[in-house]
Automatic annotation (TrEMBL):
Keywords: Cell membrane, Membrane, Transmembrane, Transmembrane helix, Transport
Protein name: MFS transporter
The UniProt record lists the keyword Cell membrane: yes
Any Pfam family matching the protein: MFS_1
InterPro entries attached to this UniProt entry: MFS, MFS_dom, MFS_Efflux_Transporters, MFS_trans_sf
Taxonomic superkingdom: Bacteria
Keyword Transport: yes
Chain ranges passing through the membrane: 45-65, 72-90, 96-122, 134-153, 159-176, 204-228, 240-260, 267-286, 292-313, 325-348, 354-373
């Protein structure tokens, strides 16, 4: 298959599921909280549902893709995103909003593993790294779109969610048209790998680091907009611009492959963690100054996409005989950390306020620096990793 034929609809679907259905919640949260009378602890609990449903969905999708093929799973992801966004857009209370959040969060879990399989099946080996990189960039593109939408419809979060659902319909139809049916291609087979981390050398640091990073980033995703909005120093479009900056600079995180290859995985990991921490510390320092907060958004956008790409490479290196498990494990545990991180961030904000919360979560990022990969000699695993890196 021609790479662009799969990549462009893939970017669109990832933009819808991750950027619009999942991460836009933090951008729209101040207005949602006002209209539905939600406290920070309630907002954090609702946010944790995104990550909780993602955890279950990514496990289910990884298993079902083997039997059903990537097309069915990707279309399920699109359908869940559409329905979840519609429910969130019409929800009259917190309970229905929470149900929509569960469906929207699950859409991201169903989208990730199948695209990795689709690329393996239908894109030639030498282009698979480029294809993965471009499809993953859909998250940042979705963040930019959600920010632009909020600039024009700042307080109309219900309308925005329904517009997102319409974009989701377009993504669904596009993918349904271009993705081949595996049942019509008898030569396509799926090999079942071992879905276990037991006894895998190096898996423990990966698990602990991914979970810790998930915790450290949860407060920023969920409450950064609410934090700067609470200062009273920003208009509606300035709040949305914060999100646009985060998404635009997230696109630069795709250069993680170049840095890993040049400086090594441990060095790149430490810098990624440091920058994530600095982003939270900066926001806690002077949230009312737009120059500081926007710089914080830029650093977080770069470092988050950077570190997720790095975790993917690290995971593949650890699970050298099962690349799909190597990708799924850190992403799953990142979300597990975000479940607990969002939940407790809301509680801490209720008790102590935004500034101490962001200092605490920035400190979690600093702790993660000490938990990363160790320097190792080049092995055949490094060659495998290059298939998942951008072309140099």
């Amino acid at each position: 298959m021609k790479m662009s034929k799969l990549v462009f609809p893939g970017i669109t679907m990832i933009a819808v599921t991750y950027g619009l259905a999942r991460f836009s919640y933090g951008l729209l949260l101040p207005n949602i909280s006002h209209d539905l009378a939600m406290s920070p602890s309630t907002s954090g609990t609702i946010s944790s549902l995104f990550y909780l449903s993602y955890c279950f969905a990514i496990i289910l999708a990884t298993v079902l893709t083997i039997n059903k093929g990537p097309r069915v799973m990707i279309l399920i992801a699109g359908a869940l995103a559409i329905v979840g966004l519609i429910i969130m857009g019409v929800s009259p209370n917190v309970w229905l909003l929470g149900f929509g959040v569960l469906l929207a969060g699950a859409s991201t879990g169903f989208a990730s593993p199948p695209y990795g399989t689709a690329i393996t099946l239908w894109i030639e080996n030498r282009k698979q790294g480029i294809a993965n990189t471009w499809i993953n960039s859909g998250t940042s593109i979705g963040l930019v779109l959600s920010g632009i939408g909020a600039i024009f419809l700042a307080s109309e979060w219900r309308v925005i969610y329904l517009v997102y659902a319409f974009i989701g319909v377009i993504a669904f139809m596009w993918n349904a048209k271009v993705l081949p049916r595996t049942d019509s291609e008898p030569y396509v087979t799926f090999q079942k790998g071992k879905f276990s981390v037991k006894g895998v050398k190096g898996s423990a640091p990966l698990i602990i680091s991914s979970t810790t990073l998930g915790i450290s980033t949860a407060a920023f995703w969920t409450f950064a907009i609410g934090f700067i909005e609470s200062t009273g120093a920003y208009s509606g479009w300035q709040l949305s611009l914060f999100w646009v900056i985060l998404g635009v600079f997230g696109l630069l995180g795709g250069f993680s492959g170049s840095l890993i290859e040049r400086f090594g995985l441990p060095f790149a990991y430490k810098w990624g963690c440091l920058i994530i921490s600095v982003a939270s510390f900066l926001l806690a320092w002077h949230p009312e100054q737009w120059s500081v907060s926007y710089f914080s958004a830029a650093l977080f956008g770069i470092s988050y996409i950077f570190i997720t790409g790095l975790l993917m490479v690290w995971g593949i290196k650890v699970f050298i005989t099962n690349a799909s498990l190597g990708i799924g494990t850190p992403f799953l545990l990142l979300a597990v950390g975000q479940v607990f991180g969002s939940l407790f961030a809301g509680i801490i904000i209720d008790i102590a306020g935004f500034v101490p919360t962001f200092v605490v979560y920035g400190s979690m990022g600093m702790i993660s620096i000490m938990l990363g990969p160790r320097e190792t000699k080049n092995t055949s695993a490094d060659k495998i990793n290059h298939e998942y890196l951008p072309s140099q």
